[in-house]
Amino acid sequence: GTEDLRNAIANPTHVVQNSKRYMGSPHRWTIDGRTYTPVEIAALILRKLLDAAEERIGPIEQAVITVPAPFSDVQRDATIRAGLEAGLKHVTIINEPVAAALCYVLGSEGLWFTELAEDQRILVYDLGGGTFDLSLVQYKRDEVSVLASSGDLHLGGIDWNRALQDYICMLFARDFKRDPREDPKSLQFLAWEVENAKRSLSVRSRAALTCQHAGQRKTYQIEQANFEELTHELVERTIEITRRLLKDNKMGWAHVDVVLVTGGASRMPMIRKALKAVSGTTLNTSLSPDQSIAHGAAF
Ligand SMILES: Nc1ncnc2c1ncn2[C@@H]1O[C@H](COP(=O)(O)OP(=O)(O)OP(=O)(O)O)[C@@H](O)[C@H]1O
Ligand SMILES: [Mg+2]
Predict the structure, then answer these.
(1) pLDDT per position as a tens digit, 104-131
(2) Which DSSP symbol is given to 222?
(3) pLDDT digits 0-9 by tens, 217-243
(4) Which domains does the chain show, CATH number per domain?
(5) DSSP three-state, residue 247
(6) What parts of the chain have a pLDDT lower than 70?
(7) Which mutation among 18, 198, 288, 290 tests ligand 1's pocket best, with the greatest number of atoms within 8 A of CB?
(8) For residue 251, what are the contacts with CB-CB under 8 A and spacing of at least 6?
(9) Cβ atoms within 10 A of the Cβ of 206, count?
(10) Of 42, 163, 216, 275, which sits 20 to 30 A from 57 (CA to CA)?
(11) Which residues surround ligand 2, an ion (CB under 5 A)?
């Protein structure tokens, strides 16, 4: 969340980021002399979620945990272990795009099957904070399965922040001959401004953003078109992965019945515009970008 983003800059040695990407790997974090495995980090996150949920609904012994479709058996096992370490007695794993598709076919209340044809192919485009996940999902007679998956483990909303931040630093350095990236405090302040400006630009055509460093302070206006130009290459990368997934599976857009967009970063209008242009279809944006996967998993 935004609070964590702030901490990550203020206190970088005490913040773990993107831990999901390391599940099942030998990666370790060392914090105050103690070493943590990805499973231990995941267990801490799950424990925190369980505490919050248990406060509302009482003891919880079982859970469904979602994972990216390309997760290997080793990564899935690690996820189950994290659940058990967090105190769960039984863990079921399902694929995130399947959960998103379930949310779509069951409707947001999970009560009704939408009036869909018997057999549908659903392309799930999920752009999160740090990763891009793309899956082609088949819905056939009340069953949902993954036909193919792709994506980029190192592409997500954070890259849009970085592009905007670098641009502002460049402008500031041109104005004051000092680069805000020299000082973690200036950068922390700027990162916060950048995140807010980015979110604002999802609903407005212009946003203001203040940069302060080395005793100087300036507010910059960013236009939607400006932001799109800065990040065009990032959008294009997701579109290229999308084209390739279809091509590698010998399919065209005619084989796709619906395009579902989810993930927080899919709120950016440039994403919807690009996907609409390449697919030639109307996108289904009815799912909550933050909750569709959790809703689907719950159903
Ligand atoms: N209104 C918005 N406009 C643009 N981006 C947004 C908006 N709201 C959230 N985001 C971005 O969405 C991202 C988080 O998305 P999401 O919650 O789907 O990620 P996640 O599932 O935690 O991460 P990942 O899928 O990479 O593991 C962040 O980069 C955040 O800045
Ligand atoms: Mg996600």
Answers:
(1) 888 756 555 556 667 889 999 999 998 8
(2) E
(3) 999 999 999 999 999 999 999 999 999
(4) 2-88 (3.30.420.40), 114-155+235-287 (3.30.420.40), 157-229 (3.90.640.10)
(5) helix
(6) 1-2, 108-117
(7) 198
(8) 121, 136
(9) 14
(10) 42
(11) 128
